[in-house]
Write a structure and sequence with these properties.
There is one protein chain. The chain is an alpha/beta fold and 294 residues long. It is built from five helices and eight strands; from the N terminus they run αβαββββββαβαα. The protein has a domain of 139 residues: OB fold (Dihydrolipoamide Acetyltransferase, E2P), CATH 2.40.50. Helices cover 46% and strands 19% of the residues. The chain has a five-stranded mixed barrel. Strand 1, helix 2 and strand 2 form a beta-alpha-beta unit. Helix 1 runs antiparallel to helix 4.
Length: 294
Amino acid sequence: MRSFRFLLSRRWVLFALAIVLVAWATWWLGRWQFHRLEDRKESNAIVVANEHQTPEPVAEVLGVGQPAAKADEWRLVTATGVYDTEHTIIWRYRTSDHGDAGVDVVVPLVTADGSALLVDRGWLHTEGDDERPEVPAPPSGTVTITGYVRTDGSGGSTRVDDLSTRALSSVTAGPAIGRPTYGGWVHLHSEDPPADQPLVAAELPDLSNGPHFFYGLQWWFFGLLAIFGFGYLLYDEWRTGRGDQIATDRARQDRDDVRTAKASRKRAVKAAYRGAYEKERAEKERAERSGQRD
């Protein structure tokens, strides 16, 4: 009668542990994708709720020195002021929807109370070098803008050096321009009066759910496939008796190895005794020959 004793072999124990690890990893990756799906749905709901609201004055949505709320992201706000072109910030390494290299041009809009609102006026194509590009001038004089609220970036990439940054944050941009700054920033939607040479305007984010649902199912499918494959190989080895045969062969090999080791030790002991005997005999013969000469 066939048994499952082969499962206790090192080969199958390691195989089972590997399958457990793979199953756990694919389960975790699947849950991660579904969590990303929930985050995507939450972000999309915020965009849908905010994009069709009537624009509000910026002071009613954002506060000076206060972070922008995530619930207000992509909400339309209006502000009136004068562009501070001397403190234009170049947001580097921005690509277009077609993958072209470029930068975003961020110009502080100084309001009547002296505080500034960071306005991302749009994207500008560049050749990808590190030189500061020439940017089209914004409207001069008093300007009224409408824009979408965005939250600040975070991390070391938000550092502003020579009015250049790799991620935009009012926390680091405020000291760089030397003015109190509204928390968050805005993507420009429209200007009044309009600019002579407008930049490429920002588009609303993609509101699809993305591939996360299918990626999650795919990871879980891989985990189930690994478990099924383990079960099939286990059954196949049990059915054909290869597991028992392998266990028997290994036991026989172990016994043979033990016999061989014992025989080898016996031969070594015999050789040692023989060598000691020959040595003692040779010394005795030398002693006898020495006595005869005397």
